[in-house]
């Protein structure tokens, strides 16, 4: 009887609390998105905590039926709501430190009461601190930044981590666990390369939403401007395409089913939502919808307004680069001498009609995106946050980034 009461209350109390909080003070669309994100964050991070607990002996569960990686499903979902949805709904303006202190205190009080379902080990407090660090704190930060529309780069980073955790860790673990199948141990080399390309497509799409659109891929936190540049000049739904490809390339029948489900979702519900989202951009969005396919990438980009790349004609490296890019026949890309720029440039500069500026390696990468999908993929990879500074450092170390004229601009 005690075991049944513990398992029932562990799920019902947080669930009813979240439902009551939602009905008592219905959140706005953005605030609702913040609640969803906080809850989504807890799912893969709690699974990670449970796996760590098994490894280090922080705690164990004793139960019959309805389990998930050694943890009762009801306790798992109840914990996710307790640390995800409830604080985001009830305490959106309470200082984060106070929320952390309160929720950890609640946990410290409740966990010993869950005996005999939960058996605490001698180091269970260490596990509690680890859980707070990787579950509670990031979940509530993501919720707050989303609800308040602040710290765009930080919340995009957390969304990327969340997306990767779901795609690479949580969903495969869940599906394989339910199916009783083992995880794939070998993926053919060619498919591995394809997965890398798919990952680049997904990551550059998120980056483009943040840099050019001022928003994120999450439907409740969308870009404020229509994004037609980068990968979006080739395909309208690159993130959905990347997700489907990643699962389809695992060569595992169960994970491939997830990819198929992603296709069904994207063609159905996501397509409807995308149409409504693009409609808010009026004729501009309508032209974009008619010109760029939803799923099958075009070989050449759709670019309405021309961009300009400035380079020093007196610099041999830059002149050679400009000549080679010109020979590739880029669309809507003008070449100009850096000496004509209003101010002195230190590196090659790319400027788009929407005001976007890029320098050095990022400018070169942007120029390649005007050619075709093959060169664009190289540009996408070069512009990613980790790759870009490394490549720039390499070019600077070789002297390609130094000033070539005392009174003129310098390059790459």
Outline the structure in words:
This protein has helices spanning 2-24, 29-56, 73-83, 85-90, 96-110, 124-148, 152-179, 189-213, 238-248, 253-279, 282-291, 316-327, 361-368, 373-383, 387-397; strands spanning 59-61, 67-68, 71-72, 118-120, 307-311, 333-337, 349-351, 357-359. Helix content is 61%, strand content 6%. The strands form three sheets. Strands 6-5-7-8 form a four-stranded mixed beta sheet. The protein has a two-stranded antiparallel ribbon with strand order 1-4. It has a two-stranded antiparallel sheet with strand order 2-3. Helix 8 packs antiparallel against helix 9 (238-248) and helix 13 (361-368) packs antiparallel against helix 14 (373-383). The chain folds into three domains: 1-149, no CATH class; 151-298, Four Helix Bundle (Hemerythrin (Met), subunit A), CATH 1.20.120.1630; 307-397, Glutaredoxin, CATH 3.40.30. With 412 residues, the protein is an alpha+beta fold. The chain has 15 helices and eight strands. It is elongated and about 80 Å long.
Q: Radius of gyration in whole Å, from Cα?
A: 25 Å
State mean pLDDT (0 to 100 scale).
88
Assembly category: single chain
Number of strands: 8
The helix count comes to 15
Largest sheet: 4 strands, mixed
User: Which strand order do you get reading across the main beta sheet?
Assistant: 6-5-7-8
Which of globular, elongated, flat, extended, rod-shaped describes the shape? Answer: elongated
What percent of residues adopt helix (DSSP H or I)? 55-70%
Helix-strand sequence? HHEEEHHHEHHHHHHEHEEEHHH
User: Roughly how many Å apart are the termini?
Assistant: 72 Å
């Amino acid at each position: 009887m005690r075991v049944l009461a513990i398992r029932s209350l562990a799920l019902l109390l947080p669930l009813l609390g979240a439902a009551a909080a939602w009905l008592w003070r219905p959140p706005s669309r953005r605030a609702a998105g913040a609640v969803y994100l906080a809850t989504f964050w807890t799912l893969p991070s709690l699974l990670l905590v449970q796996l760590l607990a098994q490894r280090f002996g922080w705690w164990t569960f004793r139960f019959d039926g309805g389990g998930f990686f050694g943890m009762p499903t009801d306790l798992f979902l109840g914990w996710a709501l307790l640390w995800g949805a409830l604080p985001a709904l009830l305490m959106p303006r309470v200082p984060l430190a106070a929320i952390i202190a309160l929720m950890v205190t609640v946990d410290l009080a409740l966990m010993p009461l869950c005996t005999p379902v939960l058996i605490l080990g001698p180091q269970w407090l260490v596990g509690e601190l680890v859980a707070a660090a990787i579950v509670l704190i990031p979940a509530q930060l993501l919720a707050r930044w989303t609800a308040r529309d602040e710290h765009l780069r930080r919340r995009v980073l957390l969304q990327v981590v969340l997306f990767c955790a779901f795609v690479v860790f949580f969903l495969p673990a869940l599906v394989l666990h339910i199916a009783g199948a083992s995880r794939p141990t070998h993926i053919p080399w060619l498919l591995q390369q394809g997965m890398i390309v798919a990952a680049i497509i997904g990551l550059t799409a998120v980056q483009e939403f943040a840099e050019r659109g001022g928003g994120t891929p999450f439907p409740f936190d969308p870009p404020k401007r229509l994004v037609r540049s980068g990968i979006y000049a080739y395909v309208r739904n690159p993130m959905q395409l990347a997700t489907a490809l990643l699962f389809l390339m695992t060569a595992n029948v169960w994970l491939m089913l997830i990819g198929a489900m992603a296709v069904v979702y994207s063609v159905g519900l996501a397509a409807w939502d995308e149409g409504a989202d693009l409609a808010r951009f009026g004729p501009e969005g309508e032209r974009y919808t008619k010109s760029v396919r939803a799923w099958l990438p075009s070989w050449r980009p759709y670019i309405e307004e021309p961009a300009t790349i400035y380079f020093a004609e007196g610099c041999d490296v830059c002149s050679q680069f400009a000549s080679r890019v010109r020979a590739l026949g880029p669309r809507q890309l003008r070449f100009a001498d850096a000496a004509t720029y209003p101010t002195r440039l230190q590196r090659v500069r790319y400027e788009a009609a929407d005001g976007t500026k890029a320098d050095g390696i990022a400018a070169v990468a942007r120029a390649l995106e005007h050619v075709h999908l093959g060169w664009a993929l190289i540009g996408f990879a070069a512009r990613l946050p980790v790759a870009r500074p490394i490549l720039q450092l390499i070019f600077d170390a070789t002297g390609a980034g130094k000033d070539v004229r005392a009174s003129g601009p310098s390059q790459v």
